[in-house]
Amino acid sequence: METLPKIKLEDIHNSNNARNFLGIFVHKYDEIVHNAASDGIALFLTESQDALLVFCFFDKLISNDGFMGLIQRGYGGYIFTNNFAKIIGTWGAERITAIVNKARVLYEKNRNELKKETKIEVINEFKLLDNEYYDIIDMEIEMIKKHIENNISKFATVIN
């Protein structure tokens, strides 16, 4: 079962920045997925909804702990095999896609080593990608927000 959450127009207008705007959608997705699971209903997010949800999860991990933290927490395989970066690139967030792709290559090249003691050179390469991400994220989130605003029907049903 696919579903679009109902989001109040007032909540959208009251979001004071792009991250809060995205958070309105993610909160609703979490809510409907949790409720469906509690009711024993199989629920499927649309590709766009899933990409947004994974992006917000990714952004939170990178913003708090960087790529090394993401990997050390065991999310490397999930993030680097997920299609979200490619999808948000089509939304205009191409620089995020490029950074995730660079990190994916570095991760795959050093996957076995990352499970053990990691060389400082590899850690530094991930730190460079962290910094590159921090430099562009605000503009890229604005691109994602703009895409959602222009394609709102793929993400939610807006109500008064």
Describe the structure.
The chain has 160 residues and is mostly helical. The protein has a single domain, classed as A middle domain of Talin 1, CATH 1.20.1420.60. 74% of the residues lie in helices and 4% in strands. It contains seven helices and two strands, in the order βαααααααβ. The protein has helices spanning 9-14, 18-38, 47-72, 76-81, 84-90, 94-114, 120-150; strands spanning 6-8, 157-159. A two-stranded parallel ribbon has the order 1-2. α3 (47-72) runs antiparallel to α7 (120-150) and α6 runs antiparallel to α7 (120-150). The two termini are 25 Å apart.
How many discrete structural domains? 1
The biggest sheet amounts to: 2 strands, parallel
Q: Report, as a whole number of angstroms, the end-to-end distance.
A: 25 Å
- Number of helical runs? 7
* Helicity level: over 70%
Number of strands: 2
Could you say what the CATH architecture is? Answer: Up-down Bundle
What's the CATH first level? Mainly Alpha
Widest β-sheet, arrangement of strands: 1-2
Q: Which key features would you list for this structure?
A:
single chain, A middle domain of Talin 1, mainly alpha, 160 residues, 7 helices, two-stranded parallel ribbon, 2 strands
List the helices and strands and how they pair.
Elements: E1 6-8, H1 9-14, H2 18-38, H3 47-72, H4 76-81, H5 84-90, H6 94-114, H7 120-150, E2 157-159
Parallel strand pairs: 1-2
Helix pairs in contact: 2-3, 2-7, 3-5, 3-7, 5-6, 6-7
